[in-house]
Design a protein that fits this description.
By secondary structure, the chain is of the alpha/beta class. It is built from 12 helices and 15 strands. The strands form 4 sheets. A 5-stranded mixed beta sheet has the order 3-2-1-6-10, sandwiched between helices. The longest helix has 27 residues. The two termini are 30 Å apart.
């Protein structure tokens, strides 16, 4: 029987976060230092093909070994950790409930009645948690409380807990990856007003998580099946190279902002690999535009103030300029190291690699 975790909004006493991604396991340990944070350790271990498929851990013994290997390499001795699950298997909703409910009544209403209304699968197949955000008065003059409802498939939760248990660890914190990312860049998000939305575009290995955030809370999320692997595959085919999970070729490309539209580009010297990459990025941009338009059409007096690029693919050279030009919206590549004012070796953590550290650092922050 898998040990239960505290909750999706629990607390930990150690600043150890572990991120399980399709191509790598990241382990971080943070400690409080005066008014800020100190990076004690940050280690990445490569994940072989087949251990994670479509966001699901499909080989738990292999993943458990990789977690142990990463902890051994980082020289961290710990028994309880924080980790996150991909947004593709999760539901995040803001729901208003009557303010007069006491804590017991609120819990009963949210976890049983309200959760069942929003889940696309049976309530008994979900792990659900919630957090009260604040009070407001609705258009009828009734005081209500805004509640953040978070749910993930029980089979996903159980697989993660089982994997960590096989690695000799207990999961204190299990949250959705986008929450960890928001925590890492929360100071940047605080600059926006309640009428201004920030869009997080987390470009991972085989998918991109899009989250629209207002006041530090995700209002809308969507997973698009385009990631660095699809970019790498398209480039390899165009250049007649063998396919590889290694991102070296991709990270060496400098994105040209000039759009590719059916060959009518005016660019004659573009190489086949870049042309293939731009086509995939064009598809991703179109999906992002659809997501933004869909959300704005549901909302009044709201505008998108900033797009933040995160994840391993978020650090591609000049990708921010490409998105800015395509979407006519200010776009920036996040720097989690800089956001948290962490002291690191600049050569070990160049700017291009930093955007992929947003989730693991946010997980590490849960305990400090």
């Amino acid at each position: 029987m898998v040990k239960s975790f505290n909750s999706l909004f629990g607390k930990s006493n150690k600043g150890v976060g572990i991120e399980l991604a399709p191509e790598r396991v990241n382990v971080v340990q943070l400690r409080k230092q005066r008014q800020g944070l100190k990076l004690e350790s940050l280690t990445s271990v490569e994940v072989p093909e087949g251990v994670i498929t479509d966001g699901q851990i499909t080989d738990t013994p292999a993943m458990a070994q990789l977690i142990q290997q990463a902890l051994a390499e980082s020289k961290i001795k710990v028994s309880r950790v924080a980790t996150g699950v991909p947004g593709r298997d999760s539901i995040v909703r803001l729901i208003p409930v009557p303010a007069e409910l006491d804590d017991k009544e609120l819990r009963e209403m949210v976890l049983n009645h309200e959760a069942g209304l929003y889940l696309p699968y049976p309530r008994e197949e979900a792990d659900v948690d919630y957090q009260k955000l604040g009070y407001f008065v609705d258009e009828d003059g009734i005081e209500k409380v805004q509640v953040l409802l978070v749910a993930t498939r029980k089979e996903v939760t159980d697989t993660y807990l089982s994997t960590f248990e096989q690695a000799g660890l207990q999961v204190d914190i299990l949250e959705i990856n986008s929450f960890a990312l928001i925590r890492t860049i929360r100071e940047q998000l605080r600059q926006f007003s309640p009428q201004e939305a920030a869009v997080l575009v987390d470009i991972e290995f085989d998918s991109t998580e899009i989250a629209i955030v207002i006041n530090g809370v995700p209002q809308f999320s969507r997973t698009v099946p385009i990631g660095t692997y699809q970019m790498q595959m398209a480039m390899a085919r165009a250049m007649s190279l063998p396919t590889s999970r290694d991102m070296e070729l991709l990270m060496g490309m400098v994105i040209t902002p000039t759009p590719i539209d059916g060959g009518q580009t005016g660019v004659t010297d573009i190489n086949p690999g870049m042309a293939a990459l731009l086509r995939v990025l064009g598809e991703l941009t179109d999906e992002l535009r659809r997501s933004i338009d869909f959300y704005l059409n549901q909302s009044e007096n709201l505008e998108v103030a900033q797009i933040f690029l995160a994840g391993p693919g978020g650090g591609l050279q000049q990708l921010d300029e490409f998105f800015t030009q395509r979407l006519s919206l200010p776009t920036t590549q996040i720097d989690p190291i800089g956001s948290l004012s962490l002291q690191v070796d600049e050569e070990q953590y160049p700017m291009a690699k930093r955007s992929g550290l947003g989730i693991v650092l946010g997980l590490g922050m849960r305990g400090v």
